[in-house]
Amino acid sequence: MSVEFFSTWHFIRFSGLLAFFLMTFSVSAGLLSSMTMFKKKKPLMLELHQTSSWIGFLVMLFHMVVLWKDEYVSYQIAEIIIPFMDDYAPVYSAFGIFSFFLFLIVLATSDFFMKKLGRGLWKKVHLLVLPAWVFMMLHGLFIGTDTEQFGIASVYAGSAVLVALLLALRYAEALFQPTKKTP
């Protein structure tokens, strides 16, 4: 009896879930770093935010390479990087591709072009992380072959609740912060 514990499918699903976890962690740390209650921990939160986003992005790249090398479902490179080219699930695959490119834009502008863009434009571009994260979650939910399992579904549900709660707290904090008056 032969049991394959580390099949390509396992690497595909594990890397997808790990990337989702890391990007959820990054979004959460980014939101927390912008809140006044974490003012003293802001450097730590920003470090966690940046580190988890880059590691998550590298895990996304690994996920894409493993998909390309999968022998069970034969993907061409175009199907992995061009939205709607995939025959298996074109819309849900496109969500993953959109997510990848939106995260790439946010990471590139944050680490390489922030000073050239200026803080105002950079902040607007940085907000692309939210649709990127939503696309990533939808991609995993609808194309993942194990999403119906309680543990996996709980990861997605818990992540959605966490990010929604942090967004609501951040929004509420912004509403009640006194505005600075200029003379």
Explain this structure.
This protein has one domain. 74% of the residues lie in helices and 0% in strands. It has helices at residues 8-33, 42-69, 77-81, 90-111, 114-117, 119-126, 129-143, 150-176. The chain is globular and about 55 Å long. The mean pLDDT is 90.
Short synopsis of the structure:
The protein has helices at residues 8-33, 42-69, 77-81, 90-111, 114-117, 119-126, 129-143, 150-176.
Total of DSSP H or I helical runs spanning 4+ residues: 8
Count the beta strands.
0
Helical amount: over 70%
Which radius of gyration do the C-alpha atoms yield? Answer: 18 Å
What does the overall shape look like? globular
Order of helices and strands: HHHHHHHH
What number of structural domains do the residues give?
1
Structural class, from secondary structure content? mainly alpha
Residue fraction in strands: under 5%
N/C terminus separation? 80 Å
Largest sheet: none
- Report mean pLDDT, rounded to a whole number: 90
Low-confidence stretches: none
Organism: Bacillus badius
Protein name: Ferric oxidoreductase domain-containing protein
Subcellular location: Membrane
Membrane topology: Multi-pass membrane protein
Annotation keywords:
183 residues; mainly alpha; 8 helices; 74% helix; globular; Fe3_Rdtase_TM_dom
Show the helix and strand layout.
Elements: H1 8-33, H2 42-69, H3 77-81, H4 90-111, H5 114-117, H6 119-126, H7 129-143, H8 150-176
Helix pairs in contact: 1-2, 1-7, 1-8, 2-4, 4-7
